[in-house]
Design a protein that fits this description.
Length: 217
């Protein structure tokens, strides 16, 4: 039963993500799904809730619904009803995707986070760092016509929600504005561990990048 629901959910998400940008394709969803299951192994949680939330976490992203989050949330809710997910599970999943996005963290809302939310949120953030994160950042940066690097453009130390949405700057600056900081936002033990390793890797990448930039290597 659960297996069948997961299968249908994957199908639904695949179709829904077809119009999303390249940084958020179905492969991102599958990576977050796999990472979430990995992190959940060390936690006492409802794995079914984690799996559903991981698969559905980007369907309601306002970026893909002309800035409207409610449209996506309703779509997810309707889907979960249609495939007969119990009401309490459905509510837990909706709560997670409603409260998860990185942009929401600017609002510093004080809510009690469920362990299931912490897991999926960590997994989503981890997918923005490490080798995958580097690949995604340069893809995204190219997509919005940002330079890969410009020594004359300093990074923005205090990035607020408006600045983040404007997405001005260079992709290398994005490392300092977001990617290198994400490790401090991890909420689970396993998440912290993975994020630390991936951040070390990004630091090595940056070191190499500057050496090559200056023709020193
Ligand atoms: P999310 O909230 O899912 O992280 P974003 O749209 O902020 O969504 O980011 C999607 C991907 O694009 C992430 O890998 C992120 O690091 C990257 N990204 C976002 N903004 C920039 C930017 N200005 N330059 C380069 N990469 C970016
Ligand atoms: Ni995501």
């Amino acid at each position: 039963m659960k297996k069948e629901i997961i299968r249908k959910t994957k199908e639904f998400v695949k179709t829904e993500m077809e119009n999303a940008d390249k940084g958020h394709d179905y492969w991102h969803i599958l990576r977050v799904y796999n990472l979430s299951k990995e992190i959940a192994k060390e936690e006492d949680v409802d794995l079914f809730v984690v799996e559903l939330a991981a698969l559905l976490h980007d369907v309601s992203d306002s970026k893909f619904n002309n800035g409207d989050e409610e449209i996506g949330l309703k779509k997810v809710n309707d889907f979960l009803e249609k495939v007969n997910v119990d009401e309490d599970i459905r509510k837990k999943v909706i709560y997670i995707i409603e409260n998860m996005s990185f942009q929401k963290s600017f609002e510093k809302k004080k809510i009690n986070l469920s362990k299931e939310l912490m897991i999926v949120q960590d997994a989503d953030r981890i997918d923005a760092i490490g080798a995958i994160g580097i690949a995604r950042a340069f893809t995204f940066g190219g997509h919005i016509h940002n330079e890969i690097y410009n020594p004359n453009i300093k990074y923005n130390k205090k990035l607020n929600k408006e600045d983040y949405k404007k997405r001005q700057g260079t992709t290398i600056n994005h490392f300092y504005e977001k990617l290198l900081i994400l490790k401090d936002k991890m909420l689970t033990k396993k998440g912290k561990e993975i994020a630390k390793n991936r951040t070390d890797f990004m630091q090595s990448f940056l070191k190499e990048f500057y050496l090559e930039w200056d023709g020193k290597k």
